[in-house]
């Protein structure tokens, strides 16, 4: 970890002092107290020098970016850093400029204006001559004639197109899932809906006990009674092992949030509104608001209609090229080497590579580590890598726990190399653990630490 002297160093880009979050890799203004992506505090920030881009080529090309999320903005930045004169258009069906999507659940109880979580202020786009086309639905791409076609019939000719349409929440087809008081949080409009109904919400059911479900549960528990329903046999099933899942259950209950595992939901009850969530067992959990957090599906429709290869997401190579000439893809909608974690650091890195290559530079995408953090419920959690998920493998483990203090530290090894880690209660080691994972630290070395 950096020393306080190093933290005092002032490094600027334009008028801003920038820092890097050592947990998720996001680079942002040092004035922020928490990372806008993963939410960790300034103990995990380090001053950062922005890499100088050497490749420069000014052209009159038109770059059309579909989607203004993390990947789209990162691609726009990468293009403008290399090409000062090209036209850059960024199209979104949302009504607002790009924002830090992960903050939607992390600040659900406090967020009042999307400007609070904007990635860049409005005048940044003017200064960088990036034209936002908002409230516009992309309908299709005419790959042969290099045109993007919008729902209202507008046609936009491109030289290079970046497909960054992200993902949408998956809502399982329960009876009643279409009711207005059943909300999956993907964009600011979803948060606004929750805010508008909040004053008459007494009971909330969150469907899905993954990290985003737990973030939403924690935020909603500040003003309502909350129950989390999880279909699997533990919470955060993708990231935690059995002991950690059980501990998270205790922590959740300790702050007054109820949860139920093995919850097979059959119906969301209540005529036009919502009165509860019914399980196969017949139990009904009362609710006047249901928040669904059951994972995401890549937005592939526009690409697949245009003949672009899809394998659950848009298939890209290491340069983020799709099979269609001059069309790149990045972010939650893209899959490289069979992997799509749908996380922010992956979207920004893919966006950077897509934008740089579209501008004529040569960058290869390096897979980002799958790590997550959670802060809330009077605890903190960090989970990364493979935490014993492959039953066919013989893992070695190192475990330290203190049940009274609700602390858990566990390391998973395959062939003597560190492949996964879970920290609950005390996450102060997470940067060191992240580094150890990157280098595949040995079992012997970790035992000595
Ligand atoms: C509530 C929440 C919390 C999260 N927390 C974390 C976290 O803590 N850490 C982490 O790493 N990741 C987190 N994520 C995931 C992270 O936010 C995503 O991986 C990232 O935002 C993906 O960026 P993207 O640019 O690929 O896609 P998106 O951000 O989805 O952007 C795509 C944009 O394209 C628009 N669009 C889609 N279809 C069309 C169309 N046909 N026409 C026009 N526009 C269209 C969408 O509306 C959207 O604005 C979270 C996600 C959510 C929803």
Distance between the termini: 16 Å
Mean pLDDT, to the nearest integer, reads: 92
Give the helix proportion (percent range).
10-25%
Q: Number of folding domains?
A: 4
Globular, elongated, flat, extended or rod-shaped: what is the shape? globular
Write down the oligomeric state: single chain
| Proportion in β-strands | 25-35%
Number of strands: 30
Radius of gyration, CA atoms, in whole angstroms: 22 Å
User: In CATH, what is the class of the largest domain?
Assistant: Alpha Beta
Q: What is the third-level CATH name, the topology of the largest domain?
A: FAD/NAD(P)-binding domain
Largest sheet entry: 5 strands, parallel
- List the bound ligands: flavin-adenine dinucleotide
Can you tell me the residue ranges where pLDDT is under 50 for at least 5 consecutive residues? 1-15
Structural class: alpha/beta
Number of helices: 11
Strand ordering within the main sheet: 7-6-5-11-24
CATH structural architecture of the largest domain: 3-Layer(bba) Sandwich
Superfamily (CATH H level) name of the largest domain: FAD/NAD(P)-binding domain
Helices and strands, with pairings:
Elements: H1 4-8, E1 12-13, E2 16-21, E3 27-29, E4 45-47, E5 62-66, H2 70-82, E6 87-91, H3 103-106, H4 122-127, E7 130-133, E8 138-142, E9 147-150, E10 155-157, E11 160-163, E12 167-169, E13 182-184, H5 188-197, E14 203-207, H6 211-220, E15 225-229, H7 242-254, E16 258-260, E17 265-269, E18 276-279, E19 284-286, E20 289-292, E21 296-298, H8 301-305, E22 310-311, E23 313-316, E24 327-329, E25 334-336, H9 344-358, E26 371-376, E27 379-385, E28 396-402, E29 407-414, E30 417-424, H10 430-439, H11 443-448
Helix pairs in contact: 2-9
The structure holds flavin-adenine dinucleotide.
